[in-house]
Amino acid sequence: MHATHRKLWVGASLIVAFSILTALIAPTQLRADDDDDFEFEHDELEHIDEFHAMLELIETVAEIADDPSKTGVLAVISLEDRVSSEKQYAEILEQLLPKVKDPTVQRGIRLKLGDLYGELEQYEKSREQFKRLILNQPQAN
């Protein structure tokens, strides 16, 4: 993502987040303590915490989207929820691996394949993935 587009996206996200926060806090009821000090009620503080968490999520997503390696590794991880079995997941990753040019994404795939093959009790294949990672050989020879 181009730096200017990223800044616009983050800025727009902050405006939306601020609008949500304003809508949540506008109806806030303040109560007076015995010393006439005002404090937010508990629910309003939770809304502020939720808003802060949302801002952190926006910044994290923008950071990931701005980095092709991080985006690729996240896609490898996210693919797990979109397959019907560990076997299918491993097959898809094996098909993708020779086509992937980014070494960071290749390593992410090999890490996941090593775990998958272990879960599938294909221990030789699992060891091979981890050996390649240890020897820094992300792509097959």
Walk me through the topology:
Layout: H1 3-25, E1 30-32, E2 38-40, H2 42-65, H3 68-79, H4 86-96, H5 103-119, H6 123-134
Antiparallel strand pairs: 1-2
Helix pairs in contact: 1-2, 3-5, 4-5, 5-6
Q: Can you characterise this structure?
A:
- About 4% of the residues have low confidence.
- With 141 residues, this protein is mainly alpha-helical.
- Helices cover 70% and strands 4% of the residues.
- A two-stranded antiparallel sheet has the order 1-2.
- The chain folds into 2 domains: 64 residues, no CATH class; 66 residues.
- The radius of gyration is 23 Å and the shape is elongated.
- It is built from 6 helices and 2 strands.
Largest sheet: 2 strands, antiparallel
Unreliable residue runs: 32-37
Instruction: Give the percentage of residues in beta strands.
Output: under 5%
- SSE series: HEEHHHHH
How many helix segments?
A: 6
N-to-C span: 32 Å
Percentage of residues assigned to helices: over 70%
Say how many strands there are: 2
* Principal-axes shape call: elongated
Structural class: mainly alpha
How would you write the strand order of the largest sheet? Answer: 1-2
Number of domains: 2
Mean pLDDT: 81
Radius of gyration: 23 Å
Features:
mainly alpha; two-stranded antiparallel sheet; elongated; 6 helices; 141 residues
